[in-house]
Backbone:
C-alpha cells in the first residue's frame, strides 16, 4: 500500500481525486486493492491489484468521463491469442485485444500523463493560431 501511495503522490498533478473502492489485506501476504481515480481532464482510471495464493493479478481501466473504455491493461486469462499473454490490453472495446508489456500503475499513469499532456499542449497551441 505504501508503494501505491508513492505512485499516486508522484502523479498528484494528474489526479484530481482518489476513491478507495476496496482495500483488503489477507493472510500470508494476500491483498486486494481497488481504486477509482478522477483525472484532471475528467477521465477515470480504475486500478485493481491483488495478490492471491495463485499469484499477482492486475487490471488498469482508463475511461473517458462518460465511462467509455479508452484502454484496459490486464493479465486475466483470455481466449484471444496475443504473443504477450497473459499481459494484454483492450483498446476502445473489450473485443479489440492487443499485445502489451506487463503493466504497473506507474507505467499506466505515465502513459496517460503523456497522452493528456499532448492534448493539453495541442489545445494550448491552438489558442495562439
Residues:
Amino acid at each position: 500500500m505504501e508503494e501505491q501511495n508513492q505512485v499516486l503522490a508522484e502523479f498528484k498533478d494528474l489526479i484530481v481525486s482518489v476513491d478507495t473502492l476496496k482495500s483488503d489485506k489477507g493472510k500470508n501476504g494476500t491483498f486486494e486493492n481497488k481504486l477509482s481515480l478522477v483525472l484532471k481532464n475528467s477521465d477515470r482510471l480504475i486500478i485493481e491489484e491483488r495478490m492471491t495464493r495463485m499469484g499477482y493479478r492486475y487490471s488498469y481501466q482508463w475511461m473517458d468521463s462518460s465511462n467509455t473504455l479508452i484502454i484496459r491493461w490486464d493479465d486475466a486469462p483470455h481466449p484471444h491469442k496475443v504473443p504477450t499473454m497473459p499481459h494484454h490490453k483492450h483498446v476502445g472495446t473489450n473485443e479489440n485485444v492487443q499485445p502489451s508489456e506487463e503493466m504497473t500503475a506507474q507505467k499506466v499513469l505515465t502513459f496517460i500523463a503523456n497522452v493528456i499532456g499532448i492534448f493539453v499542449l495541442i489545445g494550448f497551441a491552438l489558442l495562439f493560431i
Summary: The beta strands are 15-25, 31-39, 44-52, 55-63, 69-74, 88-91, 97-99. The chain is about 25% helix and 40% strand.
